[in-house]
Amino acid sequence: MNAVWLVTGAAGMLGRDVLARLADEDVTAVAADRAAVDVADAASVRAAFVRHRPAVVVNCAAWTAVDDAETREEAALRVNGTGPGVLAGACHELGAVLLQVSTDYVFAGDAATPYAENDPTGPRTAYGRTKLAGERAVLDTLPDTGYVVRTAWLYGAAGGNFVRTMIGLEGVRETLDVVDDQRGQPTWTADLADRLVRLGRAARAGTAPAGVYHGTSGGETTWCGFAREVFRLLGADPGRVRPTTGAAFARPAPRPAFSVLGHERWAAAGIEPIRDWRDALGEAFPALIAAQ
Hints:
The protein is α/β, with parallel strands linked by helices. It has one domain: NAD(P)-binding Rossmann-like Domain (Rossmann fold), CATH 3.40.50. 40% of the residues lie in helices and 16% in strands. A 6-stranded parallel sheet has the order 2-1-3-4-5-10, with helices on both faces. Strands 6-9 form a two-stranded parallel sheet. A two-stranded parallel ribbon has the order 7-12.
């Protein structure tokens, strides 16, 4: 009998791509959306574990409303902090592997070189604090079978995101002002899903050390550079995207100025890091256009 994978947050952009990747490999997967499993409720999680007996759990469930978390931190913490802790406890009892998806927001965002997996954290937002709480719960409870995969600047065909927004705006706006003083790594959810599946397989095989990994694309750019590449792929003039500062788009939660992550840890698992962001965006683009 094939090992069962349980994917929480299965209705989200990343969760859908994880399920698609597992289907490609003919892996037995259980799709658990919010209605099926409340990750922060021990009884709900226990019932799912008793029924499905998962060998690997991929936790894509998350509170992702960064600004709302500033005034609703307790609610965000329930999903981002308590939830991973409950899942980790259940995985510990069953002997299952847990892959916890986290974020660049656990860092201060003021570095000048890529953050390594073991660099000190220092979140400056409620969202970042809640996600860091989830990381710590997983790593403390599952020192040998807990995996934290930090990602950033995600886009995909199955949900709203920056790329799809830019595609839509290109057709109705002559020019766009886009932030040019925040740097990061645009990451296609299909690429991240592939690495999560590979990491889960390696974890079960005993060839991937537990701990923190960074699941972002190679290279780096700004939001302005990202938008200009979208315009280029549309056949539009990238010059229509004009650079501006983050201060021009002030929000309740401050955005990191530097979200570039290093990828050294993948070598220990025998898995290559994700490719350059431009290559991934080019391959993803037809599906993104079709999803508009």
